[in-house]
Amino acid sequence: MNITRREMFKLSGLGVATLGLGAAGHSALLSAAQTPFKQRQPHSIKKLFHGVCYYPELWPEQDIERDIEEMLKLGINVIRIGEFSWSSIEPEQGKISLDFFIKVMDKFHAAGIGVIMCTPTATPPIWLTHGHPERCFKDENGVIMSHGARQHASYEHPEVRKACFTIIRAMAKGFGKHPALIGWQIDNEMKAHVAEDYSEAAVHNWHQWLKKRFGTIAKLNDAWGTHIWSQYYQSFEQVPASVKTPFLHSASLITAYKMFCRESIADFMKEQSDILHQNSDAPVTHNDNPAFNIHHERSMEAQDFASFDAYPSSKQWAALVFRSDLYRSAIPGRAFWLMETSVAHNGWLGNHHTTHPKGFLAAESVLIYSLGGEGFSYWLWRQQRTGAELPHSAIMSAWFQPSVGYSEVQHVNETRKKLEPLLINSKVQDAKIAITYSDHARAMMETEGFDKRKDFPSRYRDVIAMWQANIMELGYHRDVRFENAALDGLQVLITPAMPYVSEDFLQRTLSFVENGGVWLVGPLTGTRDKEHTVPTTAGLGLLDKFAGVNTEFVVPLTDTGSKGTAFGITAELSGWCAAMQAKSGTQVIGQIDDGVVAERAFITQRKIGKGHVVVLGAQPFGDKAQNMVDALLTHCIELAGVPGKFEVSKGTIVAPRVDKNGKAFWIIVNMDGEGGSVKVPAGSVDALSAKKLSESKLIIPAYDWRAIYPKV
User: Fold this and answer.
1) Where's the Glycoside hydrolase family 42 N-terminal domain (predicted)?
2) pLDDT confidence of 14, banded at 50, 70, 90?
3) What is the Cα–Cα distance from 499 to 528, expressed in whole angstroms?
4) Shortest CA distance to 268 belongs to which of 213, 201, 324?
5) Binding site annotation covers 467?
6) Do 388 and 448 fall into the same domain?
7) pTM summary value
């Protein structure tokens, strides 16, 4: 007998109301889950989601109707629930009840509000770990995490995974076909508070990972050069994890253990996703953040659309642009979500951030939506009365009065209504410039630092964000693309701080260059081999031949006072420098003026096919550094013939989009609160009023925005 989803819920006695807004949202996102993301067709936004994280299990059940009524006033059309609910659903092992959350979903569906359901694996209940320290996470100092916060359990332990998959399977079967459900979220901020796991279960799995990676211990010994310091191993079981030692483990082992732990978590996420997809058509995501200790690119295999959390102060707005550029590209053709952001300020025990200035939250929402976001969601609905995050802002206070951010949420909703007609069935214009993000490079850079000089980014993601910001401030639209992402449509690729360049990456990049692309190889790229060893064939490994150079030295120039000249600009050089001699056919653009590697090249250019490879061998530093970097980037962009430079003031962002008819339009938003301006072509039209713009310079007030159709 064939029965519809609605009839199925009638038979089960759930009393689901007629399909409303939630069902429309469900349909909008459902198509995302049908095929692996690498094979999907582009997804057009059909509506803009305005959401909030909600914890009905923490408050009296009779408050739900009041919550719904208040949410509807604010235009909230989706809630995210369940992320920390394991003890509510399964208070004792094996005693699982979904009844309460089914009632919650029924009520929200009746109100036309969709639901994203989270798997609650970030906060296992006490019965799973009490008396079982072997099931808990252990750090490199041997400290075993205690129950009481979150992420304290070891996902490497088979009993922990078994318990996780049991509750996920129950939730997938119980909620998976509920018409209120528009999506799933795996866990919550995976590995936000912990890094490498050193529990016995993790070390056992480490040995299995090594066996799969190398096949024989002889191959591991050869790859890692383990006779150094008598580290030679006779079996995989003898290979230690990267726990504390009197000095340091080898770079190979440290980086490998990071990669093992991060790949293992990504695989755990994929197992969760598989269970959800077996029982539900709703798409799957995870609220990520570049700071988390997971393999971000690999984790996308578990997701149907990307989402991230961000809690910037108004001074940190650029982080929103960086993450939008990264997660927009993470799953090609799929819109991303900002799953968590603060209504007014971030906070937890012992700390709180500055309250947002008036208008910032609405500007943040415009930025997210216009750069490719489909959902904009707050943490949280009602201020926590217990726990560790008492100081954090919320839409409603603990005593259920509008918070200081309530009117700002109203402003966001008014803005969303104006934006939605412009953004539905449109997409962000394809970027011609991209910066490479590599999870392997991140692990290597955490093992072996880049430049310890004060004021230089100390974290890998900040180095990548620095290059992304350089392109943004030059006025160009850009992507941040994972290492294995396609290079289709690009004209300039910038790859900084990627010590190991694989043959696969090099071959794809060679094809990109031969077809007219410009590849800018940034400092440190190519200086290490796959197993975090030093190349023995050339200073930059395979890159020397590709770039047509002979790297004579790879030497640190930090605090040496060494200077280099390029584009008529002289600047100090810092960090590790690839001091090169150009071979025949390779042009020297920048030369080192003084010091131990004087008269060598630090910027070279070689033509290959229709394109060029440009190598920047050292990081410019000091007062003239930005001038030199801007000149180099401008040179590469002009060499590639990239169109579409925006004449826009600093602190104001242009998001170029294309509507369903192929017509280009711009969303311009001021993010720094200082107001800004953008030069617009003659004949441009305001997209909201349809009035022709009389001025060539469009003024954007503080935290305000405009939408225009440029006549170009």
Assistant:
1) 53-418
2) very low
3) 5
4) 201
5) no
6) no
7) 0.94
